[in-house]
Amino acid sequence: MKAGDELPPLTIPVTRTLIVAGALASRDYQDVHHDAEAAREKGSPDIFMNILTTNGLVGRYLTDHFGPRCTLRKVAIRLGAPNYPGDTMVLSGTVTEVTDDGTAVVRIVGANGIGHHVTGTVTVSLPEGAV
């Protein structure tokens, strides 16, 4: 692994169930994550995914790639275009830095039909011998 390496993309169908289940699992009871009528009253066309669900999906993307023994040391993400039901988010990553101590920095982008839903970087410690 070296700087510039690209991770294979991960395609995630954004379903109403995923949005609601993610909000419930993270104890985010804001109505815009489960009540379409309330979301519309607040100016959104539908319910939308919360940042904690997005954060979990980013973590899954990296642990699926690097393996369950990797450790996410720092997650610095920012939300952009909302993830609405019926869309698809494609996560992609590029390694920007690898150190001798087994740490990698990965630039993450999660794009949907509107634009970039999530962007940021994640610092990952890899198991010994993985670099």
From TrEMBL:
Protein name in the entry: Acyl dehydratase
Family matches, as Pfam families: MaoC_dehydratas (PF01575)
SUPFAM superfamilies listed in its UniProt record: Thioesterase/thiol ester dehydrase-isomerase
Entry's family note: Belongs to the enoyl-CoA hydratase/isomerase family.
Top-level taxon of the source organism: Bacteria
Annotated ranges, domain MaoC-like: 10-101
Provenance organism: Streptomyces inhibens
